[in-house]
Amino acid sequence: MSPTIDKTEFGSITIEGREYDYDVLIRLSGEIRKRKKKLSKAVYGTSHIISIDEAKFIHEEKVETIIIGSGQDDTVRLSDEAKEYFHKKKCKVRLLPTPEAIERWNKAKGHTVGLFHVTC
Question: Quick check: 7 and 39 in contact, CB under 8 A?
């Protein structure tokens, strides 16, 4: 079962009552992991563009939808290679400002993974 996200504010996200002060990835299993943003930063010099390597890390077999919280100010974007990768995997991507992405996450059905950027 997917964990419920309680809230977000600049620099943090609260999931099931626990506050995280870093970007998080929520797996199909419900496991909450720290985002591996170095996979994108190594390529683009910023974690605001999701690289193909990070896209491969985010994706899981059987995932139907990936919800990406693009930050408080809607800064994060997918690289063209990441978009193509998800398209080939027949995986829908919902890229929304983090507060909106949280609302979508809490209503999500099916096999969904979430990535949430907590700043910018």
Answer: no
CATH code, 73:
3.40.1230.10
Tokens of 39: 């996979």
Query: Rounded distance, CA 49 to CA 117, Å?
Result: 11
pTM score: 0.96
Tally of domains within the chain: 1
Residue 1 has pLDDT above 80, yes or no: no
Ordered DSSP codes for the chain? -PPPEEEEETTEEEETTEEESS-EEE-TT--EEE--THHHHHHHSSSSEE-HHHHHHH--TT--EEEEE-TTTT--EE-HHHHHHHHHTT-EEEEE-HHHHHHHHHH--SSEEEEE----
Domain with 82 in it: 5-116
Asked if 92 and 64 touch (Cβ cutoff 8 Å), the reply is yes
Are the C-beta atoms of residues 26 and 35 closer than 8 Å to each other?
A: no
